[in-house]
Design brief:
This protein is of the alpha/beta class. It is 49% helix and 17% strand. It folds into 3 domains: 17-73; 100-153, no CATH class; 159-397, Ribonuclease Z/Hydroxyacylglutathione hydrolase-like (Metallo-beta-lactamase, Chain A). It has helices at residues 3-10, 17-44, 46-70, 85-99, 101-109, 112-153, 195-206, 222-225, 228-234, 250-262, 297-300, 322-332, 356-362, 382-390; strands at residues 12-13, 78-79, 159-162, 171-174, 180-183, 211-216, 236-243, 265-269, 274-276, 281-287, 304-309, 312-316, 342-344, 366-369, 394-397. The strands form 3 sheets. The protein has a 7-stranded mixed beta sheet with strand order 9-10-11-12-13-14-15, covered by helices on one side. Strands 3-4-5-6-7-8 form a 6-stranded mixed beta sheet, covered by helices on one side. A hairpin with a 4-residue loop joins strand 9 and strand 10. The protein is globular and about 85 Å long. The protein starts with a helix and ends with a strand.
Length: 399
């Protein structure tokens, strides 16, 4: 009965719920009775209620252990696309009809006029089906084929979502031919909050996304890779794009372990690579080069990619700083290779990035800054905002 509610609220489905239900049902009955008893006894005589509460706590502890052990069973929590509300309503309508069919039929039988109308209509439909069965099936098949062709023949709109993952970066792109791209995933080095499991994964499932065609990881700082671990473990990932690593890190080691377990294809890209996504979209990798920048090696060698779709372009910059921006200007200023309609502002709007020369090479019309609200880093920096305003660039920030 609660499967649609669980799926709609949490995007999960369990294959082992019947085991936990069988074990928990009798305990739950006793705990419920004891709970009411403790409440009413406490009104009359609190010490005795506390004594009964000892037994209640034992049964509640058993319930928690049943839930804990059941969650360890394979198939206990399978992530699924969030169903539409209409699908949930249809499910309950079908259940209602299934369980109350006999009662509905009896009501019809008890009303002669209703019975006559129902019987006549049913007879007409059965007769029509018998005479035209082949035509109906052929027409239905043609409609299905035509609909499938129409859905794939015409491209959709390009959709970009800048996901609020706090002090971090995360961009979701859905291309005209429904390819799904995820660029970074937020995260944090502090605390136990898993932004991937608690924020990004539900966000994707609510948009009915269970497959990522391309995952781009700009670099392996926690505020970019942290949220992607849960996505890699729970969804299907077809391709992951990373760059050459300048140093080992715990995040990179964990990444390699998950990749090996899930058998995910990893592509190490560099300057000059082109990654086709669909008929209308592709990525151009602008940075890093074979020879890495040794100053702040992780940030300054972030993947810098330029996304193209029809006439739209957007530059993704990771956490590059002034040293990398200077090199990019040297490489691309002469051929306008950095120019883009939209810009993902580097390093969350830090004062160490988004130099005047770099922004003039990009000439963005829109800029997006991924920051946490009231963050203690002071991002985005006031000077960066002034530079964007000087270029008459509209900027958006989630902080």
């Amino acid at each position: 009965m609660i499967i649609p509610i669980m799926a709609y609220s949490f995007s999960t489905f369990s294959l082992t719920f019947w085991i936990s239900n069988i074990l928990a049902a009798p305990i739950m009955e006793i705990a419920t009775i004891l709970g009411f008893l403790v409440y009413f006894v406490s009104i009359l005589f609190l010490p005795f209620a506390k004594f009964l509460g000892i037994f209640l706590n034992v049964f509640l502890w058993i319930l928690l252990k049943i839930a804990e052990l059941s969650s360890l069973l394979p198939g206990s929590s399978i992530y699924i696309k969030t169903p539409y509300l209409l699908q949930c309503i249809a499910y309950y309508c079908i259940l209602f009809f299934f369980f109350y069919f006999e009662q509905i039929k009896q009501k019809i039988v008890q009303h002669p006029k209703l019975l006559k109308a129902f019987y006549t209509k049913r007879s007409y439909l059965l007769s029509f089906w018998t005479r035209n069965k082949r035509r109906i099936l052929a027409t239905f098949l043609c409609l299905c084929i035509s609909l499938s062709f129409l859905l794939t023949a015409f491209p959709n709109n390009l959709r970009l979502y800048f996901v609020d993952v706090g002090q971090g970066d995360c961009t979701l792109i859905q291309t005209p031919q429904n390819k799904t791209i995820l660029i970074d995933g937020g995260g944090s080095e502090f605390g136990s909050f898993d932004v991937g499991e608690s924020t990004l994964l539900p966000y994707l499932l609510d948009r009915r996304i269970t497959t990522i065609d391309y995952m781009l990881i700009s670099h392996f700082d926690s505020d970019h890779i942290g949220g992607l671990f849960s996505i890699m473990q729970n969804l299907k990932i077809k391709h992951i794009l990373i760059t050459k690593q300048g140093e080992e890190s715990a995040n990179f080691t964990r990444f390699l372990k998950i990749v090996a377990e899930k058998d995910i294809e990893v592509m190490v890209v560099k300057k000059g690579d082109y990654i086709p996504v669909d008929q209308y979209s592709y990525f151009e990798i602008l940075f890093p080069e074979d020879e890495l920048i040794q100053e702040n090696v992780l940030n300054n060698n972030s993947m810098v990619s330029k996304f193209h779709s029809w006439n739209f372009t957007m530059l993704f910059t990771g956490d590059i700083e002034e040293k990398a921006e200077e090199r990019l200007c040297q490489l691309y200023a002469s051929n306008n290779g950095l120019e883009a309609f939209a810009l993902k502002v580097a390093h969350h709007g830090s004062k160490t990035s988004s130099t005047k020369a770099f922004l003039e090479c990009v000439e963005p019309k829109m800029a997006f800054i991924g920051v946490g609200e009231d963050n203690h880093f002071g991002h985005p920096d006031d000077e960066v905002i002034k530079r964007l305003e000087t270029l008459r660039c509209q900027y958006l920030s989630n902080g």
